Q: What sequence folds into this?
């Protein structure tokens, strides 16, 4: 799968392919023009409750991924995941996110999930 990750605040590039925002909330202080996202898939993001519980606490990372994976099994999420897979089938996509932590965020977990499902 040709899935990349990038903070939404970073400069977009041609190598990004289709830029898909996978956060439930719009990034602070960023206009839609500067975000340069092709699609905003809120349904691919963790629930508000899970996002608040996690609060980017690295010690909760394993449990966060487990709970997020359970959420991704819902019918609503399955439809969004199917759409993401259809985008990947056409070329490169970049999952963009607002979190400052580039290692522990929902986009990282989502990419891992998609890659495991493909295998």
A:
């Amino acid at each position: 799968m040709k899935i990349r990750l990038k903070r939404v605040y970073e400069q977009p590039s041609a190598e990004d392919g289709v830029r898909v925002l996978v956060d439930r909330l719009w990034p602070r202080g960023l206009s839609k023009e500067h975000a340069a996202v092709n699609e905003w898939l809120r349904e691919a993001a963790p629930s508000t409750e899970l996002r608040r519980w996690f609060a980017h606490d690295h010690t909760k990372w394993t449990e966060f991924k487990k709970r997020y994976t359970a959420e991704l099994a819902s019918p609503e999420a399955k439809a969004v995941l199917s759409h993401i897979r259809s985008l990947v089938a056409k070329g490169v996509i970049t999952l963009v996110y607002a979190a400052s932590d580039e290692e522990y965020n929902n986009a990282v977990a989502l990419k891992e999930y998609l890659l495991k499902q493909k295998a």
About this structure: Strands lie at 3-7, 18-21, 39-40, 93-97. The chain has a mean pLDDT of 94. The CA atoms of residues 64 and 101 lie 15 Å apart. DSSP finds five helices and four strands in the chain.
